[in-house]
Amino acid sequence: MQDRYDVVIVGGAVIGSAVAYYLMRDPDFDGSVLVIERDPSYAQCSTALSAAGIRTQFSNAINVEISKYGGEVIRDFADLTQVGDTRIDLNFHEGGYLFLAQSAEQEAILRENHAVQTSCGADVVLWDRDALAEAFPHLRVDDIRLASYGRSGEGWFDNTGLIRGFRGKARDEGADYVTGEVTGIVRDGGRVTGVHLATGEEIGAGWVVNAAGPRAAKVAGMAGLHIPVEPRKRTQFVFDCARSPQGSARVKGGHLPLMIDPTGVYCRPEGRYFLTGCPPVEDVAVDWDDFEPHHALFEEVIWPALAERSEAFEAVKVVNLWAGHYAFNTLDHNMVIGPHPEVENFIFANGFSGHGLQQAPATGRGVSELIAHGGFRTLDLAPLGFERVVSGRPFLEKAVI
Question: Residues in domain FAD dependent oxidoreductase (predicted)?
Fold first, then answer.
């Protein structure tokens, strides 16, 4: 490890490793990159504990385009990140997302979102009750006014594989990784000049990228800055069915989708089992090290909703559960990307609010463009910049799961 790097990235999970990957692959960038990760096992990172999904069904065009690009990268990932004979297939299950609307308000939102999605070329269709029942006959649909279904470009994949691929290729291209914890950031007026590690070392930096996930506000605070990001707990449950609806779908490929019930409960296949979850009843900030699952959530909220939606889910048994963290942007549930207006070389890549896995490719590319070229070159992510935090202008996303 050197004592100074052109770019120091705080956080080496999927966002930090994506930034390192895109920097090292940019022919116009010839600098040095250091990624600092406090836990190289990634056992408690948001990526590893997520539902590992990607969708184009968002309410604003930027998020749709971000996910469309993410889908391209996921499909080509083995080629893009190959190192020697090592190829990582992300095993993309293109099962789609299925949003269900029960109220007039929910229906209106689905229709508004669909107009945005199709204007961006997303392969999403709206179904009435009869079409929904025909496609997925195990569902009870008498109370459903409208459904929105992603026919392609949506599904789930190997979440830790995405980290391993970006990390492995970035290292192969010359990025350095170190296990350590950043405890301080050195600032000189309008610039940051380095970081302090828990070991007492100081490493100089031309740029510092905050890719610290749920700890984003802690890292920003070290530079005397604030970002409205906090850890919110999400519990995932895996359950078995006595009468599984697997194989009953009448859509291309015969796959069951990730269904989002009007109650907010979601459910998707997970091999022979099913994975499910929902926001907690009281969705509050938690400690960074609090990973105790909300055990009662399944019996009190999730199972009643699923049993009401499908006879197949009346007799189920939980076989596994865990809790992870959303890096929750309390302003508007959208990522914050780019420099702080008062500290030009401190770059935020934070606040993904559960969307970081699918948005990592576009984020990594965008941050690398800012550093290597001075601005966004492919997809204009400027509306997601820090200026909206300063002015308190939310860039709202309605389709948050």
Answer: 6-370
